[in-house]
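Quick question, first post here. What does this chain look like in 3D?
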Amino acid sequence: MHAGSSSTFRRLISEIGTVDAVGIEERVAKFTTRSIKKASKVWGLKTAISIVDLTTLEGKDTRGKVESLCQKAMSPHEGLDCPTVAAVCVYPAMVKFAARQLAHTAINVASVATAFPSGQAPLRTRLAEVKAAVGDGADEIDMVINRGAFMSGEFDRVQDEIAAVREACGESTLKVILEVSELENYDAIRVASFLAMRVLRSGDFIKTSTGKTTLNATLGNNQVMIEAIRDFYLETGTPIAMKPAGGIKSAKQALHFLVAVKETLGDEWLNNTRYRFGASSLLNDLLRQLQKEKTGAYQAPYYFSEASGAY
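> Answer (accepted):
Ran it through. C-alpha cells below.
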C-alpha cells in the first residue's frame, strides 16, 4: 500500500491542507532572483556560517579527522571576522572525541542515530544507540524516521517511534530526518512534518535528508517544511526549528535558503536555535565568499581547506 492511498493519510491531509506544488515552485524560483549586496551579503554569509552543522559521516572517519573538524568548527579561518559554526555532527562512535574537543565552547555536538541512514533496526536497538550517544556527550540527536512504516500508512507507529526517541534524548535536542526523497511528493512531506512536530518540543528540528540519497535538500522541499512549521506555529504557538541537509554546497545556495526563511518565517528563525544547514563542504565556500567581500579577490578553494586543516 502507498501512504497516499490510505484513509488515514487522506484524513491527515484534510486536517492540515494539501500542498500547491506549482505554487511552491513559483515561490522558490523568486527567492533565487533576490539581489543581496554589500553589508547585507556579509551579514548573510556570517549568519550562514553560524548555522552550519559541520558534518562528517563516512565509514572511514577517524578520531583524528573528527578532532581536526572540531578545530575548524572553533576557528573557521584565521584573519576573517567570522563566527564559529553551530555544531559538529558525527556518528555515535565519534561523539566522545568531539565532546572532548568542544568542551567549554558554545559549539554543540550532534550525532546521527537510530540506525542512520536506513532506520532499519529494531526500535530497542535504535533507542539504545540514542541513549549511548547522549551518554557520551551528544547535545543533539539527528534521527531518521521509519520510512517503511510511513509508506505503508502506519502513521501512528511512525509518530510513536519519534516520541520514544524524543524521550530517550532527555534534555538533548532532537532533529527528525524525514528523508524527503523517499516520501515521493510534497503532500507526504507535509504530513510527515506534522506527524513529527506534534510530538516534538519547542526548539526541536525537522530535517530534510540524511545526505545519503540521490536527492537531498532543495528549495522546494525546504519551502514545504518551513510552511508546515509556520502553520504549526500559528496553530499551537510552538516554534519548531528546521534543518535542510545534503546538497547545499555553495554560498549562493545558502543565501537563497536564508531568503526563503526570512520571507516565510521571519527574522526569529534566522539563527542557529531555529535554523541549521547540514553540510560538509559549504563552510569553505562561505569563507571564500566572505574573504572576497573583505579583499575584493577570490582565493583558490583549496586555500581554506589547507589553511583550516580540514578534511
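The radius of gyration is 19 Å.
Strands lie at 52-55, 87-90, 108-113, 140-144, 173-177, 205-207, 241-243, 277-279.
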